[in-house]
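User: Could you check the structure of this?
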Amino acid sequence: MSLYEKPAHILHDMLTRKEISARELTEDVLSRIDAVENEVGAYLLEMRETAIAEANRVDAKIAAGKEIHFLAGIPGAIKDNICTKGVRTTAGSKILESFVPPYDATVMTKLHDADAVILGKANLDEFAMGGSTENSAYHPTHNPWDTERVPGGSSGGSAAAVASGTAIWALGSDTGGSIRQPASFCGIVGLKPTYGRVSRYGLMAYASSLDQIGPLTRDVTDAAHLMNVIAGHDVMDSTASRADVPDYTKALQNDVKGLKIGLPKEYFISGMDSDVEASVRMAIADVEAMGAEVREISLPHTDYAVSTYYLIAPAEAATNLERYDGVSYGVRVDGEDLVDMMTRTRTEKFGAEVKRRILIGNYALSAGYYDAYYLKALKVRTLIQQDFTRAFEEVDVIMTPTAPTPAYKIGEMTSPLQMYLQDISTVPLNLAGLPGISVPCGFTAAGLPIGLQIIGRPLAEETILRAAYAYEQAHDFHTKMAPIGGKA
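Assistant: Sure, the predicted structure tokens are below.
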């Protein structure tokens, strides 16, 4: 087995035992990028020289007998809407094609403190608006399991990098499923933390009350370790939780006896892919056989979640994206006067999906429609939150499909509404601020990965990690490597 196929916790042990060097590991992953990146297109920018330099620093620490952090010397990728000081950060948009942040996001500061090796910036749907990574202004990313299919989105580059072995771990962001859905499509683990559990400082805002940074990894163990690095309060983010951060790895117990699992009837919708439903139901039956208690529950306002999300998120996006006007920073397209310059800049440099969401958001916030749309959406959001609160009085976690279908073909999802309905299982968590994790739970008849979503109470990442780990350890789905570059 090549080094790039191994999870971070195995590689960390190999580094500490001096079986490999950080440089050897980094060069192995860079060679994997050389072999398959042309087929996958996971990266927008590679940072080869700095990656090798960081690996050399880690090797020097090991040689000096110093203790190293779990992530030290382990190569990973960063979604390109997370600010990296001195390194171009585009958010997948032409309007920021030459933007170089003068500061690091808080998560980047924590990763640097842990001596992580950063390989580059991963592709995404423009400003994280999309579920397929087809909306990137630069190029689409391809699913390593079938390069004619999407990797999911908006963190599709991050997920495809981990799945193809061109990164050992990655960071993504999740506003309505953008970590969990690509994790499902690419057969890896993706964790959306509780809103505020991880600082958003330095994350380019899409919808500020929904956005959250989280890990994409090979297995649940790596996700727990990465959470140990990035979680915690931050004075630079007024919404960051002040709750103490536990050691998430202590939740990795291979035991679910007595755990109460809720099965919401509203999430098994008509039109769901039959292989997806069968795999998810089998996974839940497996967990029940391991000693968990499964009961059907109801989340009655689920039917309104997608509509609610696609009013609140675009409204916040329209406000957040006002700053991209050709004046302060980013690309400028000259015009006859200030208004013409701003109009030309935004018209030429924003993509179609971003424009669509700006229009929806401004309409929902406009005079005469604010009460009818945006305010009503906020009220329904409260009802959705209350559904979960009541459900968690009865159960410890909720299990659902991560996505209603496996990865679809590039160009196949032509209707925006059809694309939005893909979010039925994921957006309710963002509206309620809850943590959720997607773990591989099987494959379709065509060999495409399927994800099981596990949802927890606010700040209950430990509980969903426990359930995910116990399920994962009873199966080998997470050990399968995407069949690209001769690997199967």
